[in-house]
Here is the input.
Amino acid sequence: MTRLRAPSVDFGAIRSEFGLSEAFDAQVMQEAMDARDLHADSRIDRTDIPFVTIDPPGSKDLDQAVHIEKTSNGLVVHYAIADVGALVVPGGALDLETRRRGQTFYLPDGSVPLHPRELSEGSGSLLEGETRCAALWTIELDDVGEAVAWTVTRALVRSVARLDYAQVQADVDAGTPHPSIANLAEFGSQRAAAAIRRGAIDITLPEQEVVPEGQGWRVALQPRTAVDGWNAEVSLLTGMCAARIMLDAGIGIVRTLPPASPEALEALKNTAAALGIDWPAGASAGAVLAGLPADAPSTLAMMTRATGLLRGADYLAFDHSTNIADRDETVEHSGIGAPYAHVTAPLRRLSDRFTTEVCLAVVAGESAPDWAAQALPELPAIMRGSDSAASKVDRACVDFTEAHVLRDRVGESFDAVVLRGAEGKRDAEVLVSEPIVIGKCGGEPPAGESVTVRLVQADTDSRKVSFDYSPVTA
Here is the structure.
């Protein structure tokens, strides 16, 4: 396979365009370096649990550590989440700076962190061999993977191994998983089945990322292993338990997604019919998508169309003065098929520090601390803004690299899969396999088909890449 590199890509321009800077002022840095556990006297010691972390290679901001054990009744998940709320002084300079940033931004040549690295990659990170303060979730599952009991408390924990996805997948395939996650495959399979029962919708599309190669960069498709999905189910499960705690208590913030519109569902069914994909009577969209073959071109087209089902994601904050039943907003995340809250990545995402704090207080039979409760109404706008910015930064980095990779190949032909056909004034969208590029395409290429397209634009200034399709005539 030919590897195409873009050695001259400078992502500093994208940092400047979006106002991203790693620099923190002196007071913020001092607070991060002086961070101490504000709840040291009330923690239970659970360093007896041999937790492991599973993250991308090179990651140091480790929010989560997991241990799964099998019992006579099912499984028990122990999930340790970095207790950032115990390290950030409410109302201090660091607290205010994180509210301005919203989340960590990831670029190919490095991240722009939510917290100074001294905290996010040091005292707050669940690093291997280090005793750390954590919010420890304990979730009991029955024999089909449904949660039957859950709790969260402040604890001291220690990770015994720092693992990455490829390593865990290789160990699982070899039949030698780490003992702490020997039950991860069973857990993941049970939770995937539970998701279908809930009516969840899992859309698996090629996810582009810019990766280093030698002295340059290239665009690759991010591999999605079974372990990725299983590990994600641990966070999803915890987020569902957190949402239930907060909704029952009448205070917190949840991630919402309205149900798919009838029009979007009908469009997906029409796409399935056009692609020859069977849609059994009464089957949910999630069940149909889950049953598609992973690598078929028609699957990519179907998944692309299915993104229309998941529109309108938002955050909903509520407290005791809010009667959620009287509001128009749904409290459910229709993609997950249940109420859901972000709670598992507080080193990288602002809202998780506050939701964790609310859950800890509710479970302990206490009122949420004033600093957390007072911030809840402000968080949806902060998170909406930072989510939008992060998405634009990701897209800008990929688009910029694609244009650099292809700038000397205008006029050449490429093999591609049509992800989406042309609709009205909107061009079709194609996935070129070598080099990995997703771009707009003129003409009317048939959705779900393998075709040949010609590159007509690769402009680094506008970061635009486009192709054209002409059908072969006999």
